[in-house]
Amino acid sequence: MIAVVLALLAAAANAVASVLQRRAARNAPADEAFRIGLMWDLMRRPTWLGGIGALIAGFLLQAAALTSGGLALVQPLLVAELPITMLVGGWMFQVRVTPQTWLAVGALTVGLAGFLVSASPTPGDRLPGPLTWVVSAGVTAGLLACCVAAAIVCGGPARAVLLGVAAGLGFAYTAVLMKRTVEELPADPRTLAGSWSLWAMVAAGLCSLFLLQNALHSGPLVAVQPALTVTDPVASTAYGVAMFGEDIRTGPWVVPELTGMALIAYGSVLLSRYAPLREQAHMAGAHPGAGGQGEEGTRPAPW
Question: Which residue ranges run through the membrane (predicted)?
């Protein structure tokens, strides 16, 4: 139960972090994409620093949750980050939350609950060996490279979605390394500083953060957040089962598990479809007399 509470608190902290980071990244110059200069620019913005503070809080809460729960339990709960992000973003950007958004939130909530009840995930009973780490790192790096290469070729919302997927996958692997690191705590916390998994976790987290900032810089939050939030728990669950021996129910239980995942995907699609309409209405209300070449045509989308 404590793992569930901590995971939900982590989701709330991550949601606040995403909204604050998007608020800062939307005003960064377009030519800073995929450059370190983007990070230097963002570091000078108080809003972005507040988002990083919330992200660190979410990171610590997630690590605490993983000390008492497995990846297959903790990571799916982070899907709650998506509806919380929409609600916080709607309040911060003064965009009305429509009935379609509530439908999407309901689908996500029911899908998450259905998946967790059906899968009934239990913690794993083993730590991955060296070969498993090498293979998993290679596969993850390959998938990230494909997503980033496709994002560079694409433009508009597609780039934001692809980078959101890449960031979600990166954060999922960061959680895997986090799980490996917290497993060492009970043995001898004094040896933690010399643990390879700790420094690998830091490196993976920083790379994922860089991908996330570029995703938020490339497109609206409603394009990035569903891709990020759904990819992270799905990949983390797969990592947990394959690498740590975590167990989820199979057999007839696969049907309601897939149904839950389908509802999560459906809710994510609804958010992506309807949120741009709310965004356009917001922009028109903010600039009632603006034309296509005026301020409304050039101002970055708030979401």
Answer: 48-80, 101-119, 131-153, 160-178, 198-216
**Rounded distance, CA 80 to CA 108, Å?**
8
247: β partners:
122
* Helix axes 196-218 and 130-153, enclosed angle (nearest 10): 10
Contact status, residue 282 vs residue 93, Cβ threshold 8 Å = yes
> What does R_g of the chain's alpha carbons equal in angstroms?
19
Backbone angles phi, psi at 253, to 5 degrees: -70, -15
Q: How many Cβ atoms from other residues are within 10 Å of residue 171's Cβ?
A: 30
pTM (2 d.p.):
0.72
pLDDT tens digit sequence for 261-289: 888 778 777 765 655 444 444 443 443 33
Identify the residue whose tokens are 């569930």. Answer: 4
Query: To which residue do tokens 């839950």 refer?
Result: 260
Give mean pLDDT, residues 194-202.
87
C-alpha distances out from residue 233 to 32, 78, 230, 238, 300, Å: 30, 7, 6, 8, 30
CB neighbours (10 Å) of residue 40? Answer: 10
At 261, which amino acid appears?
Answer: M
Which tokens is 248 given? 């989820």
- Beta pairing partners, 122: 247
In Å, the largest CA–CA distance within the chain is 66
C-alpha–C-alpha distance, residues 18 and 81, integer Å = 9
Q: Specify whether the CB–CB gap between 144 and 164 falls below 8 A.
A: no
pLDDT of the residue at 289? 35
How far apart are the C-alpha atoms of 299 and 158, rounded to whole Å?
19
Residue 244: the pLDDT is: 84
Which CA distances in Å does 166 have to 39, 110, 172, 264?
A: 18, 26, 10, 19
Q: In the chain, where are the structural domains located?
A: 2-278
